[in-house]
Write a structure and sequence with these properties.
Order of helices and strands: EEEEEEEE
Helix content: under 10%
Number of helices: 0
Structural class: mainly beta
Oligomer: single chain
Largest sheet: 5 strands, antiparallel
Strand order of the largest sheet: 3-2-1-6-5
Strand content: over 45%
């Protein structure tokens, strides 16, 4: 699956996680995950977001979610 990783500029606002949830992760189905940390163990590249204002890191592969520590690892 392809994932897009973007900095969470609205962290701490209602519905946007705590002020520590600094990352937004989107899957191919546009499902969004908020997390405090990301770990990249897979090849990643940057791209301009279609919205024309943001940039993403993009990676293909699988993810592991550590909900206790709010970490998403990309394999």
């Amino acid at each position: 699956m392809t994932y897009r990783i973007r900095y969470n500029k609205t962290a701490g606002q209602p519905g946007r996680g705590s002020v520590d949830h600094k990352w937004r992760v989107f899957d191919e189905n546009n499902k969004e995950y908020l997390c405090k940390h990301v770990v990249l163990k897979a090849l990643a590249w940057s791209e301009a977001d279609p919205n024309g204002h943001d940039h993403n890191l993009v990676t293909d592969g699988e993810i592991e979610i550590n909900r206790e520590h709010s970490i998403i690892t990309f394999l």
